[in-house]
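Model: You mentioned two targets. I'll fold them one after the other.
Researcher: Yes, keep them separate.
Model: Target one:
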Amino acid sequence: MTSNRLILSLLVPQIAIVSAVAADKPTTDDYISDSVRQKLAVDQVVKGGDLDVQVKDGVVTIGGKVHEQKQKDKAERLAKKVHGVKSVVNNIKIEKL
């Protein structure tokens, strides 16, 4: 049991250091773009849509077309939740069926 405690006491500080370094690492525009696209693609309300995502210095611009206002609003909310996003410009157009 003592060897397990020793191993644990050695690992916990290492994990904390790795986590702290990862948290301080800046988030790239490519990471943000990929994350936003992924969230939009799997969301049941947005359903991927015909959307285009551009990211510049943490500012996400979403364009394209959806069929309902709630899809446009949800796309913006999802994008804002991605780590590293500074703001979202929602240029999505609504085209009724």
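Model: Target two:
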Amino acid sequence: MEVASTILPGQVPAKMSYQAFLKMLRRWTPQLRELLLIAFRSQIAVVFPKLFRLFGFAVFTVDGSRVDLPRTKSHEAVYTPAKYRNLPKKPKKKGQTRKAKLKVKAVKGSRSSASARARQGSKPMMWITTLWHVTTGLAWNWRLGPSDSSERAHLREMLASLPRRSLIIGDAGFVGYDFLKSILDAQQQLLIRVGSNVRLLRKLGTVSETSQTVYLWPEGAQKRQQPPLVLRLIVLHDGRKPVYLVTSILDDNQLSDARIAELYRRRWGIELYYRHLKQTFGRGKLRSCNAENADIEMHWALLALGAMLLRTTYELRQVDIEPSRLSVAAMLKAFRSAMNDYHRTAKPGKSLQERLQAATIDMYTRKNKASRNYPRKHTETAAGAPVITTAAKLQRQLAKTLVS
């Protein structure tokens, strides 16, 4: 209240109750969120013109993460997976002796690991799907939902917010004919990892083909008389095993294999973003006990983090420092110091601008990260190579009739 009163003299009420504040947040958060996101996006495009596009594309990656919530009835009704919601609770047995209770407790304690995982899965958790701008490290858009939310459904909702000539990078969970077709129908490009859960065709003959040309055309799409999706298959190697990627950019002169490898490696930055959000910024578990309030809490946490990252990235660019060197811990310390000392004149070298320009990570290379709280790479759910077959004669005939 004191900081707000200093920034906006005469516009902040002298007193306000917590309940009244939450009531106002519930009313205005949806509108303010959209307005602030529009302002953030315009600033990203205008303030960082050289960073906004890479290889001619506005490059985004999409991924999801879970956030813990207090186990309350409100959260259980909204944020637990659908199969656990509204389950009837077992009635308590009356007249149970202390000895019987201890026996039941011992039996419960000896449950299998499968039962433990089931109990863990029934916990209320919030799912965040983020559309993350690769070259600036800033969140472009996001969606919230229960822990069993669909990342693909969330991304479809966010496609309209993308600028023209965008390239979306996704892992092996972002596959499927209808999903990829929705990206292409939105006039955007894609770069997706594929595995053994994907079936591709060769030699369908609908375009001028190269050795990398493949088609995604499942049986369901063929029966619905939908045209095949023409893609380009790139095989990389991460040092341990081959990595299979498909992209809608068919011309390797427009985007070479080497550039595709660089783009896919930079997708890892979104894992660091989630680490900063949940650990450095302290939003690994929300405090609100009400589901509606938790939704508001997370939206404003993401908006606050986005605003601070945007300002810090701007200050670093003023002294020719790349966004990849930004230290979120130092950035938060700088903002907290400025808020605590708002009523004092900053000493030389201690202004917010100077603190943010110094908010960088150190340059030495750490050899062993096992002891550090560092994000680990997840094992892909669809490991192995995609199944690739040669198109049959009937498939070629059907494809020509649909494409012509």
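Researcher: Noted. Anything on target two?
Model: The longest helix spans residues 18-47.
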